[in-house]
Amino acid sequence: MSEDHKRILEQQLWNIANTLRGKMNADEFRDYILGFIFYKYLSEKMELFANEILQQDHLKFREITPKLAEYSEYMDAIREEAIEKLGYFLKPEELFSEVAKRGMGNNEDTDQFEEIDPEKSRHNFILEDLQKILINIQLSTMGTESEDDFDNLFEDMDLNSTKLGKNPDDRNAIIAKVLSHLDKIDFGLEDTESDVLGDSYEYLISQFASGAGKKAGEFYTPQQVSKILALIVTTGKTKLKSAYDPTSGSGSLLLRIAKVVSDVAMFYGQEMNRTTYNLCRMNMILHGVHYRRFDIRQEDTLERPLHMGMTFEAIVSNPPFSAQWSANPVHLSDDRFSQYGRLAPGSKADFAFVQHMIHHLAENGTMAIVLPHGALFRGGAEQHIRKFLIESKNYLDAVIGLPANIFYGTSIPTCILVFKKCRENPDDILFIDASNDYEKVKTQNVLRDEHIDKIIDTYRNRTEIEKYSKRASLTEIADNDYNLNIPRYVDTFEAEDEIDIDAIAEEIKAIDEQMQVTDQTILQYCTELGIATPF
Fold this sequence. Notes:
Largest sheet: 9 strands, mixed
Radius of gyration: 30 Å
Strand order of the largest sheet: 5-4-2-6-7-9-8-10-13
CATH superfamily of the largest domain: Vaccinia Virus protein VP39
CATH architecture of the largest domain: 3-Layer(aba) Sandwich
Strand content: 5-15%
């Protein structure tokens, strides 16, 4: 599909999303609209899969009804195949389009975004059926390999919430309207080479993030930053055995890695927020990542890590900046933290995430983490951890300063720390100051492709560019007491032009003389006109 088709699809989906905007806040209508899109995706995927199985019998999935003599045999066979290959099952009458048509009642001719008056419209009541279908999708996976990947995926879609409408009829009308509008959109799933729907889903998530304020950082990393992290951790590789994000959010960082290499064998992640965890799993499936190829879990990564004993080839993370954590002394016996002798402070978990990721990093792997600038120079335990990572382990490969105001919900400047256990350049650490390379778009600063390319080319070639990048020796860093503040290494000072005081004095004298001439001219005119002079 073309870029034009993708843009049209994005706009259509955003327009439909806005039919719910007046009913609830951005967080809430995000969960409904993304859930409905996901349900439609599962339905279309199910129908395409079943039709392919039935092709030799010259039947379509929708034609398999209880009236058919072999109904039970067909359904059992299709269910078994679908659970194995897709991970879930839907009956023909449970398909999205069937529910959408049942719901519209006498409103088939309603304009796409025309407001429906519940008092005048007569929708068939579908809320109970729809809620059962969403539950049935999950139930179809019980006791199978895909059970964990579909468990409670739709729990944030409460179709009986008064936020959708004051009474069941009002709620039914708005849901029927949204389903009908979505039903008219072609997701183009027959084109197996295209990821237009996945990209459009990602676009919607980004749009919700831009309007979600401070909460946006909980579930989405701007694509420009995701791209930088992905290109860094895949440097020199076209395939990866594993990719991991300990604060996976909506999964955007992991999915970005999949776009810059030909294959990622397995994705791993952990996410604390239940709603965001559901969104991440939906996002994975909707991008065509088979349920056997991802292992996303829900828990507090620092307090209850669920992938212990595993190492990963590529690790990326945009953890919550300076988050609080327990810093419980019991963690000093945890393999992730024990060798450092110090824990990150309870008020700032930044280096706790670094330590966690280092523990999970494979010997041939690369990790990149986004942190606030304070993590580069704060003292105490954080300074101790920085020193250990550089002096004792020599894992830090690069420090990249980003512009301020590029993240949703915060305007603070941030940086990327890159770590490797087996560094190709063990004698120095590369510092890049990209803080001044951006374009201002409305109230947000944006990194364009040329800015990203410059960062990546500089990192990969370890190029020294005046006022932009420098390779600092380990000795120099030690002399700075392991303070990694970028201006200590990359000199961006711009000297002011020299001022010729004598020339300025002559210029002022000439202006003064010219003013006296002008005053005399004004005096002459005032005298001729017989009016008072202004001085």
